[in-house]
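To illustrate the input format used throughout this study, we show a single complete record. The first block contains the structure-token representation of the backbone; no residue identities are included at this stage. The design step must infer an amino acid for every position from geometry alone.
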């Protein structure tokens, strides 16, 4: 087919835009490569023990939530028990914890509910005759323990 172009059209532009595009590559090859790559990834996961580590993590997480739910479900019977529960809140609320430990800068950034918690804790400790640092010993990394129900035995 022969087309006559007007003189004001750039011949080079026509050549560039009318060239045939290359054929699309076969889809089977990239799928096969992706499948091989996924198999290699799974073999690496197995070799590094990822499934076993994941299982151990899930078991530890389940123990954590069981302990947490027992803690919430056990009502405090004394002022000491109530003060202990406020220390648990400080374990999770870093801003309030730092403020309790004396950081003035952190105290200025507290929300109202955090300030109320700290005042409640201060009152409970005073009523119970307990020191300010009562139940604020936080274990490092692998030093955290879970006590089995109905037992004094600790699990690491």
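Output of the design step:
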């Amino acid at each position: 087919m022969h087309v006559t172009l007007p003189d004001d059209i750039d011949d080079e532009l026509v050549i560039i835009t009318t060239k045939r595009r290359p054929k699309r590559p076969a889809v089977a090859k990239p799928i096969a490569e992706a499948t091989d790559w996924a198999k290699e990834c799974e073999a690496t996961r197995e070799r590094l023990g990822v499934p076993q580590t994941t299982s151990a993590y899930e078991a530890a997480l389940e123990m954590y939530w069981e302990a947490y739910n027992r803690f919430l479900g056990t009502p405090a019977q004394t002022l000491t028990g109530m003060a202990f529960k406020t220390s648990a809140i400080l374990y999770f609320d870093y801003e309030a914890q730092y403020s309790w430990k004396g950081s003035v800068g952190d105290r200025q950034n507290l929300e109202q509910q955090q300030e109320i918690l700290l005042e409640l804790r201060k009152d409970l400790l005073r009523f119970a005759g307990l020191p300010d640092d009562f139940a604020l010993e936080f274990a490092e990394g692998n030093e955290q323990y879970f006590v089995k129900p109905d037992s004094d035995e600790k699990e690491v």
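Structural context for interpreting the output: The mean pLDDT is 78. Helices lie at 11-18, 28-47, 50-73, 79-92, 94-100, 104-108, 112-128.
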